[in-house]
Design brief:
The chain is of the alpha/beta class. It has 19 helices and 15 strands. The strands form four sheets. Strands 3-2-1-4-15 form a five-stranded parallel sheet, with helices on both faces. It has a five-stranded parallel sheet with strand order 6-13-7-8-9. It starts with 20 loop residues before the first helix and ends with a helix. The chain binds flavin-adenine dinucleotide and iron/sulfur cluster (SF4) (2 copies). One iron/sulfur cluster (SF4) binds next to helix 6 and helix 7.
Length: about 475
């Protein structure tokens, strides 16, 4: 019903309602409301049903966006859900936390002149509605297969692979050092972006579908890699990247200087009702403190917004470039600004002050220089300096991979110069036969949607390997 579509000319873009910043500072609940069916239908009808849909081209999962928008516009929500779930293991999660402005929505053709279709919010609505209606089901294998797979890491990459392989009938075992499933979706990303129940209900569905989770098992510590390989016909490594990039300089070892992951994990665990001594003692709790977060990416945005919600006296974000050059999503920067975070652009920490605990950060002011070959403007130090008072400093400078070949005593696992696992790009297999890899451990710190894509692709290759052997996978 094409006449229902193309409404962008007369109907303005409308994002789901956002809670007032004064209210959202008080809790860790999500800040956006869900569309109601009428809003979802109306917003979907703005799509012009492009013959070459650039939204889909720029979605890492190649989601069939025009089709599910049309079905939503026509109130055929169960079909919309089925189309959406066919390519995405966690559509309601991507709808919430994908940086749509850089992916699907940023490439929607009506973005030029009219504002883009609200693809992420519709995707979220479709699957939230499907959950309410009981349409969402776990893996249902048509046949059981005797082969088993071992997946290391229960983040989005590992879970996406687990879901596909279980659907194909394999005996799927997922190992994770954490006590909960979800990886960074459970302990990294805060609840105001992704409420934890949404991840927990997916965990239950996968478990009900026959996937076995071995939690509290750290490869290289409680279980050797060799032993795991011996247990399974094929193995997937999806362990993510967790080694925090550090910062040196005078005073950098002072108490009160913490890493982003420690801070965010403690906050998420507290929200999940765990006993968190480091939070209760005040070490990883921003309440009443002057907080300085160093970094300009999405992790830094999550830290400043978490500190605000914990009741920090003040929150400043220190970033060496300017706003236009920030790597973080502009939507998250805007949300942080609305919530009262102070951004200190063109500033780099030079020294941390204090005797037995951090009391401040001496900051060197920077200026932007010439654009380098990557298109990014260089930064240069100036002679100007200032001091920021601080009781808690959080380092959010990015993550690198752990040294898996050494930690797992497996030199056959080759790594790149950045420490990420090397895989044969057509097969996603490492240099070890039957051992595949997916997600951040291959790409470096990336996005949930890319981890899902890698996990699904790896599952297809593992299936081929187990059915036809290594030669066939390589010949793909
Ligand atoms: P992970 O999610 O990191 O999962 C890896 C799992 O492996 C973990 O559960 C870990 O415990 C386990 N593991 C590691 N080593 C071992 C071992 N030796 N033995 C057993 N288990 C092990 N992306 C977005 O798309 N949108 C966002 O808004 C967003 N926000 C983010 C905010 C923060 C604070 C961070 C840190 C990242 C964010 N990301 C975001 C990035 C996204 O979370 C990751 O790209 C994604 O989770 C990677 O998935 P993965 O499966 O590769 O690894
Ligand atoms: Fe957009 Fe992400 Fe959904 Fe793809 S998965 S359509 S990029 S929100
Ligand atoms: Fe619809 Fe925009 Fe995608 Fe075109 S690019 S199909 S208008 S959502």
């Amino acid at each position: 019903m094409a006449d229902r579509m193309l409404q962008f000319v007369s109907l303005a873009q409308r994002q789901p309602d956002k809670r007032a910043s004064s209210m959202r500072r008080e809790d860790f609940a999500e800040i956006y409301a869900d569309f109601d069916p009428a809003q979802a239908s109306a917003q979907s009808s703005r799509c012009s049903q492009c013959g070459v849909p650039f939204c889909q081209v720029h979605c890492p999962l190649a989601n069939n966006i025009p089709d599910w928008l049309k079905l939503t516009a026509e109130n055929r929500l169960q079909e919309a859900y089925e189309v959406s779930a066919a390519t995405n293991t966690f559509p309601e999660i991507c709808g919430r936390i994908c940086p749509q402005d850089r992916l699907c929505e940023g490439n929607c053709v009506i973005e030029k002149g009219f504002e883009s279709v609200t693809i992420g919010a519709v995707e979220r609505f479709i699957t939230d509605h499907a959950w309410e209606q009981g349409w969402v089901t776990g893996p249902k294998p048509r046949q059981e297969r005797p082969q088993s797979v071992g997946i290391i890491g229960a983040g989005p990459g590992g879970l996406a692979a687990a879901e596909r392989l279980r659907t194909l009938g394999y005996q799927v075992h997922v190992y994770d050092r954490y006590d909960r499933v979800g990886g960074l979706m459970i302990y990294g990303i805060p609840g105001f972006k992704l409420e934890k129940d949404i991840v927990l209900r997916r965990w239950k569905l996968l478990e009900d579908g026959g996937i076995t989770f071995h939690l509290g098992v750290e490869l290289g510590r409680n279980l050797s890699f060799a032993e795991l390989r011996a247990r399974h016909d094929s193995v997937l490594i999806a362990t993510g990247v967790y080694k925090a990039r550090d910062i040196g300089g005078p005073g950098s070892g002072l108490p009160g200087i913490e890493t982003a992951m420690d801070f965010l994990t403690a906050s998420n665990r507290k929200g999940l009702g765990d006993d968190v001594p480091e939070f209760d003692s005040g070490r990883l709790n921003a309440a009443g403190k002057r907080v300085v977060v160093i970094g300009g990416g999405d992790t830094a945005m999550d830290c400043v917004r978490t500190a605000t919600r914990q009741g920090a006296a003040s929150v400043a974000c220190l970033y060496r470039r300017d706003k236009a050059n920030m790597p973080g999503s502009m939507r998250e920067v805007k949300n942080a600004e609305e919530e009262g975070v102070q951004f200190v652009w063109l500033s780099a920490p030079e020294a941390f002050l204090g005797d037995d605990h951090v009391t401040g950060v001496r900051v060197q002011r920077m200026r932007l220089g010439l654009t380098d070959s990557s298109g990014r403007q260089a930064v240069e130090a100036t002679d100007s300096r200032m001091t920021l008072d601080a009781d808690l400093v959080i380092k959010a400078l990015g993550f690198d991979p752990e040294e898996l070949p050494r930690l797992w005593d497996e030199p056959g696992l080759e790594v790149s110069r950045w420490g990420t696992l090397k895989v044969e790009h057509r097969t996603q297999m490492t240099m070890l036969p039957g051992v595949f890899a997916a997600g951040d451990i291959v790409r470096g710190a990336s996005l949930v949607v890319w981890a899902i894509r890698d996990g699904r692709d790896a599952a297809a290759r593992m299936h081929k390997y187990m059915q036809q052997g290594a030669m066939q996978v390589a010949a793909e």
